[in-house]
Design goal:
Shape: elongated
Distance between the termini: 31 Å
Number of domains: 1
Order of helices and strands: HHHHHHHHH
Structural class: mainly alpha
Strand content: under 5%
Number of strands: 0
Helix content: over 70%
Number of helices: 9
Length: 247
């Protein structure tokens, strides 16, 4: 318990240094653009790939589990839409991205720490936390809405393709289910959740990488710990945000 409180205190101190006023906003902006490409754009392919298959699998599973003359066929599209909007495109997708983005951030900063690059920045009078971590947080939090929207769209495309390629559901009924009783607030809800999760992923991963001690073995352990804790915190925060925003 004391060790956990100590780590939490270190994390808060690091975030305080990270969110201090940058010495050069132009450099922070340039770094943010680079990080958007590395953390955000490079994650598009995995978001698209996974979303298509999850949308297809959801459509098949739902259609198989609600086959009843009492339930209209368009319900398959309706339930698929609700699952994708409310949970998959924000919570589940961020859990997946925590493995890619979180390990990337923790490994990069951990390597810089053990090779004394961060120490060199400190010796030059640079606020290394602000210089290295803030652009990563800005980049991923700003770009995550794009990933969420792509995930939603390609999740629906996956369901549409299953309707087109098989007889699980007709395309007309799937489209009607997608449009039925649509609540636009669910998109805002999903985007807001994802932005919170993006901050959790990058900040926790940055903490583990920035504070690592030792060599390459410790960098690997820090990366693993960052992904695990990020995933746990995403699930816990998801529960709180769902209660506050939908309760």
């Amino acid at each position: 318990m004391i060790k956990a409180l100590h780590k939490f205190g270190e994390y808060l101190q690091l975030m305080y240094r990270t969110f201090s006023m940058p010495d050069r906003w132009s450099e922070t902006f340039r770094q943010t653009i680079r990080e958007i490409s590395k953390l955000g754009v490079d994650s598009l392919w995995i978001v698209i790939f996974i979303s298509i298959f999850i949308g297809a699998v959801l459509t098949i599973q739902i259609s198989l589990n609600i086959k009843s003359p009492m339930i209209p066929a368009f319900t398959v599209g309706y339930i698929t839409r609700e699952v994708i909007l409310l949970e998959f495109s924000s919570s589940i997708m961020c859990l997946i991205l925590s493995g890619k983005v979180g390990s990337n951030v923790a490994t990069e900063l951990g390597t810089m720490r053990v090779t004394e690059q961060i120490d060199a920045l400190e010796m030059m009078g640079v606020n290394s936390a602000n210089y290295l971590i803030l652009p990563k947080i800005f980049a991923f939090v700003l770009f995550i809405p794009v990933l969420v929207i792509f995930s939603m769209c390609f999740g629906f495309i996956g369901g549409y393709l299953i309707g087109w390629m098989t007889d699980v559901i007709t395309i007309a009924k799937f489209e009607y289910g997608i449009r039925f009783w649509f609540n636009a607030y669910y998109i805002s809800y999903s985007v807001i959740k994802a932005m919170v999760f993006a901050f959790i992923i990058v900040s926790i991963s940055a903490y583990y990488g920035y504070t690592v001690k030792g060599g390459a073995l410790q960098v690997g352990k820090a990366s693993t710990d960052a992904v695990v804790l990020s995933s746990v915190m995403i699930l816990a925060t998801d529960l709180v945000l769902t209660h506050l925003m939908l309760g």
